[in-house]
Queue: 2 jobs
Job 1
Amino acid sequence: MDYGRIDLAERLAAEYVAGSLRGAARRRFEALLPSHPRLREAVAAWQARLLPLTQAIAPVEPPPALWQRIEARIGDGAAPPRAGLWQRLALWRSLAALAGVAAIVLALLLAQPLPSQPPMVVVLAATPGAAAGGFVAGVSADGRSVVTRPIAPVALAADRALELWAVPAQGAPTSLGLISEKAASVVRRERLPAGTAALAVSLEPPGGSPTGAPTGPVLYVGKLTS
């Protein structure tokens, strides 16, 4: 495989930074980074675009019921001593924090420092009649990258897909491409269309709208905010 190809390097780097490249493929990609300058450059560029998005989302305190479900799963049906449970949870949280720090350090090592403005962030809420939930989307400061992530996985029939649209204040929407109903998606364009006032997600056939306009119901909509 020719990892010097720009299109291949960009695609793999985008999936790696967004977290959608997993398992053996992710480990193989990380093993290739030291010997492939093109891959390192692509990763650095995507991290410079996408890392600010993680700073724009405020942390959310999990509800008490979530911890109760975690406790039930850890105990495998038996109620372990509460102190032992919280000690284990504290250890896992520490390991997660260390992993996060390691990711940030890797980003700093790979990425060249670039001036960056805050990205635009928008919550796409469910429209009347759509299933509860929604998406969080971020648009990089240069308008060239859009990242979406479902607030909760969206149940889809096998013959349906979700398509993201840039909606202007006036005129027809522009397709930004298909997005995942259960994981992060990275959409890259030359630039987000001028005059985009909102983002929307519609239900479409597996390959996307055949007409260039939404053909199914619009499930989620959100106005752009900066």
Job 2
Amino acid sequence: MGLASTFAGAAWQRCTRWGSDLQLPIQPPAILDCSSLARRMRRVTASAIMELIKTTAGGRYISFASGLPDPALFPIEALAEITQDTLAKDGRAALQYGPAEGYPPLRAWVADTLRARGLSDATPDHVLITHGSQQALDLAARAFLDPEDTVLLETPSYLAALQIFDSFEARYTGVPLDNDGMDVARAEELVRTRRPKLIYTLPDFQNPTGITQSLARRQRLAELAAEHRVPLLEDDAYYDLRYEGAPLPPVTALARNPLAVYTGTFSKSIAPGLRVGYLYAQPELVKRLAHLKQITDLQAGSLNQRVVFRFCDRDLLAPQIQRLRCAYAARRDALLEALAGSLKSKAHWTRPAGGMFVWMTLPEHVDAAALLPEATRRGIVYVPGTSFHPGGEHRNTLRLNFVSEGEEAICAGAAILCETLNDAVA
């Protein structure tokens, strides 16, 4: 599949979300009788980003496309030593089944960390260890959503979350973003009129825009969800990747909401291949989510949980986070400087205070998906913005990852990107 057809297909599938008049079935391969599959499978599709990565994997490209951290910064030596030590001292338990809720010392360590973030009541009973924060999002959606329920979310939003909600046959009510995050006044109006079953938000360094929600808007969003008894799903996967400014409290911490779920991960700070994440919720809700987890996979990996705990317990996490912050902040600055020097008024983009992404908006007549094959021919890849909109809108937008490549590659790739975009604008 070519790049243009990859994103054309993704945009077409995305458009099927908005209403019954657009609910056309995706044509299945001839060898598969889709009538045998559950109805929800009509909306279970491949990630356009993963398809792009596969399509370009065999070539030599400078990639702004992935959501992957830089593997050169993984603490491999420390993890290897800790893994060997864990197997030597605790190998039988580490290779055995464990509790669905997670390895108790790791749950306690996460609870301590969450109290420091502002979730002051956090105890181990508030914590469920998951296979990355992606599973935490899936468990929450599984618990709260019936078919045709409405999810209120920021637009654009995290692609893999949209895929999760699609798998539960959700509908969408989008709330626009500005430099302070979700337009909470608009969200309040929509909560009253659309009565969503779930609010999904990424307040810190939002994926894909990099925008951080202001404290005032966090406070009002927390109060809004609590007042109307709407479950709140807060995705804080990028919390550790802050390059400037002081951390803000989670939305979940700002109002008492027994239906709030806060998710985090070690994928961005240690390594995604460990697949260790977590969620915070009230203990009764954690128990119910743990029942769902038992059905899904029984438990997160016992060995990996112990490795992550020992890494954190040896005080290795803080210096690892600082190492990432220094490297990624320099790469962000290199990208922003290159864009400012070459594009000027021909496009505008976000300046994230952390995270992994810059969001760019081009003139209305420029189609980022249609331009991607030419960019690829010149040696770079990025993600067109349509994939992050439930309806496939805003074809003049794109997302740039600034952490996967080194500074030298970022500068070279940015020069190619700016030349490509300048030609398109002209």
